[in-house]
Design brief:
GO biological process, one term: DNA-templated DNA replication
GO cellular component, one term: DNA polymerase III complex
Shape: globular
Oligomer: single chain
CATH superfamily of the largest domain: P-loop containing nucleotide triphosphate hydrolases
Radius of gyration: 21 Å
Order of helices and strands: HEHEHHEHEHEHHHHHHHH
Organism: Novosphingobium resinovorum
Protein name: DNA polymerase III subunit delta
Number of strands: 5
Pfam family, one: DNA_pol3_delta2
CATH architecture of the largest domain: 3-Layer(aba) Sandwich
Length: 324
Amino acid sequence: MTMDKPFIGQDAAWQEWLAAIASERMHHAWLLSGGKGLGKRAFARAAAAELVRQPGHPMPDVETHPDIHILDHLPANDDEVKKKAEGKPYQTKRNITVDQVRGMIRRLAIKPTLGDRRAIVIDPADDMEKGAVNALLKALEEPPAGTYFLLVTHQPGRLLPTIRSRCRVLRFAALGPEQLDSVIRRDAPQADAAARAAAIAAAQGSPGVALDIVEHDLGGIHALMMRILQRGDPDFALRGALAEEMGGRPARDRQLAALELARAVLVQQLRDAPRRRQLGIIEAYGALTTLATQAPTYNFDAGLLIMEIGGLLASAAMPREAAR
């Protein structure tokens, strides 16, 4: 009997994982690959728990089980460590560090504690420092018996080919409208039918984006972003409206959600755009990705940030507006 999955969709990937666990020669390294917000984080933790679960025992607590090691972004400094301990929102470091990976490798010298399997989750592997990547490569080349790696990646192209070549790929597909609706009903039950419909239309199959739209009330911002992409914004009026919709002192989470939403709408535009427009969309997407990596740790002015987002969307509009 397997655990109740904490995610919706990705049944094909889950069945592939269960079949691998049951096989006699399970691959030691797995790449969980797909767009951001598809449920890879929850999947990785569920997969790790299923891997180390002992027959006849309840499902383990992923956060405390001695044979599950999760490497993700640490708090940015001592003050943020205190916030995390108090259950408050906290800022994280930009990267997964080489010290984190080396610490994990030292643990591999000891056999698993409660069984014969150990799970290492790196989330996301895209954000490892160069030294961390090199250290991980050595572990992947000579993995200890019973050790299995799950590398969450939003952009597998950012990983070294030598890392990718040692991993079996689990691909994560976009969810359908009914699956997205189920996610929203489960995780944001306060959302009414109109809010759910708007989130589903904007999310392009990503439950993470859909939940951000609902939870951070981004419906109006999404509508303005789409108008900018359709019309451009030569007089800055739509960018002004975007800043007003965002609010004078928006929470950091809402700013980050707006960044992810802007990237999502560009991906949506790229799929249907004529070739002459694609370069502008790709350039804007790259700039937004840079902003998204900087925003969690940089102290950007909220008003300037949303104007920058609007400007990048305007640069990708048809007809293309020169970036300002």
